[in-house]
Amino acid sequence: MSTPISPLRILPAEMQSAALGSSSVSGGGFADTLRGAMDEIGQLQSSAETKVAGVLEGHGADVHTALIAVEKADLSFQLMMQVRNKIVAAYQQVSQMQF
Amino acid sequence: MNLFGMLEMSGSALGAERWRAEVVAANMANGETTRTAQGGAYRRQLLVFRAQPMPRFPLMLARLRKGVADGGVRVERVVADASPMPVRYQPGHPDADSAGYVTYPNVNPVMEMADLLSAVRAYQLNAAAVQAAKSMIQQSLQILS
Predict the structure, then answer these.
(1) pTM
(2) In chain A, which residues have their Cβ closer than 8 Å to the Cβ of B15?
(3) Fewest CB atoms within 10 A around its CB: which of A39, B7, B18, B81?
(4) How far apart are alpha carbons B51 and A80 in whole angstroms?
(5) For residue A86, which residues of chain B lie inside 8 Å, CB to CB?
(6) Do the chains contact at A62 and B145, CB–CB below 8 Å?
(7) pLDDT of B84-94, one tens digit each?
């Protein structure tokens, strides 16, 4: 008496379809992701600007809140610049390819 | 927890400690105040802090999208110190009772100074944590370059 062993499948059907679906849905690709990130950084920067203005105009905003907002905007911008540098470097490598 | 979770937490603590220093300053300013809006002498004010819970995983995803700060601290309320109020014999004072005693605030300058130092040190502590978080993020940015 032995129980039958179920056959192995490389990928379940639902996972295959999901993988195909996701690749076909995200048509925008990397440019859209980057644009989204840049929008987010823009929001962070404008919120930092509002808070710093609030401190300077004496609306009772906290100094540390404003400075942390500035720091967040700065770090996000640095991250965005690093990603952009990497993309440009990769693009240049591809464009200088010799056949 | 996102990239800025630590910054948010330390930021909430900075706000709470600043508030504590403000309350200490109010207590010291009103150390001799015998008239208040509630009537009677000023009562020493105290802050009650409450820890913001660290989220469980399903909540964490939802909050990440909303950008809500997790962890950290929040000032729950400001309460009056219920300790006994000292009285001084000052018969000429307009707030003296029929026996000539004036009730004064239960503010002890020595305790307030200790509280103030403690608030300032705690603020420094959390500012150092902000610096540490910032340098950690910058270190991780160095990975890519």
Answers:
(1) 0.73
(2) 62, 64-65
(3) A39
(4) 33
(5) 144
(6) no
(7) 999 999 999 99
